[in-house]
Amino acid sequence: MTTAVDAAELLRRTRELLAAHPPATTGRTEFLGARFDAGLAWVHYPAGLGGLDAPRSLQPVVDAELAAAGAPDNDPRRIGIGLGMAAPTILGFGTDEQKQRFLRPLWIGEEVWCQLFSEPGAGSDLAALSTRAVRDGDTWTVDGQKVWTSSAHLARWAILIARTDPGLPKHRGISYFICDMTDPGVDVRPLRQITGEAEFNEVFLTGVRIPDSRRLGPVGEGWKVAQTTLMNERVSIGGMRLPREGGMIGPVSRTWRERPGLRTPDLHQKLLTLWVEAEVARLTGERLRQQLVAGQPGPEGSGMKLAFARLNQEISGLEVELLADEGLLYGDWTMRRPELVDFTGRDAGYRYLRSKGNSIEGGTSEVLLNIVAERVLGLPAEPRTDKDVAWKDLAR
């Protein structure tokens, strides 16, 4: 009979890890590997895969003890796609061999992941994708183009959806793969953004060979697998854990306190309104994470991601307005290919420009509004005339 892992047991195991691998004298990668092997990476994952089958709500017990001891983390902002999207999808649909191969280096950060979903010809209608995967024995040949791919210039692996049967309706002819970004035929090109950086990329796939052993889920059920990725993506973007005045509301609040000469009654009212909304969103995110303890993420994550995008854009606009002429300045237009997005570590101009992408990435706000309307509020679905039409017969 398996004994349930409680907070006291997790604390004991965490202290054993620290005693056996003191952070001050243990290399970062070695420590993270030992943490994974001890089941303290994500405690709600199965034993042997970085977890202990413990309640998800107990993860902060481990994190707080390790932080107090000065232990290194796995730089989650740099590997967010792997942690927030690839890992839960592999856990839910991967074979035992895939879980053993990919989860440990993913969590440690030895292998960065990206997401090959969006396409220039599909727009917000992801299921209309045209990238093709054709089977030849135990291998698939993939041809197509993906766009808005964060971290593709850093990634070793990608989660990829491609059309495997154009004779079926668009949602039913898709399969889900793991693509090696170092394989021949994978061409990553930078997309320079309004910020001056190229954080995003476009990826061209030409004759890329993917073994069938790197398929996730059954052939033709890639849309179902992708829903797990997308729901987790929205939670990871919109439901991240923040302290009070964490995120975008922090810099503008500090500016308000430190520079009273900038204040006006009108700006005061705007700041109060957005501060309250940011706090409501933060507490709603806490409640969402508590709900995740009981199961998989649902459509509520779409609502959180909607709020995240709107608030970021409104708060950054207020910050620029508060700074007046100074808010129009922009620190650096140097072309870079950064490893992560740093909203709070940059200037107000960067926050204002970069937040414009929040309503597009991770699902457009228009698509998320439909999800909330239909799956949360129970409103009638919009008419869809293409649901039962073969993809090859759709007008494009």
What do you see in this structure?
The structure is a single chain. With 396 residues, the chain is an alpha+beta fold. Helix content is 40%, strand content 13%. It is built from 11 helices and 8 strands. It has helices at residues 7-20, 28-37, 59-68, 80-93, 96-108, 222-238, 249-258, 265-292, 300-323, 348-354, 365-376; strands spanning 113-116, 132-136, 139-146, 157-163, 174-180, 186-191, 200-211, 215-216. A hairpin with a 2-residue loop joins strand 2 (132-136) and strand 3 (139-146). Helix 1 (7-20) packs parallel to helix 3. The longest helix is centred in the C-terminal third of the chain and has 28 residues, at 265-292.
Describe this protein with a few key phrases.
11 helices, 40% helix, four-stranded antiparallel β-sheet, alpha+beta, four-stranded mixed β-sheet, single chain, 396 residues
Q: What is the topological layout?
A:
Blueprint: H1 7-20, H2 28-37, H3 59-68, H4 80-93, H5 96-108, E1 113-116, E2 132-136, E3 139-146, E4 157-163, E5 174-180, E6 186-191, E7 200-211, E8 215-216, H6 222-238, H7 249-258, H8 265-292, H9 300-323, H10 348-354, H11 365-376
Parallel strand pairs: 1-4
Antiparallel strand pairs: 2-3, 3-7, 4-5, 5-8, 6-7
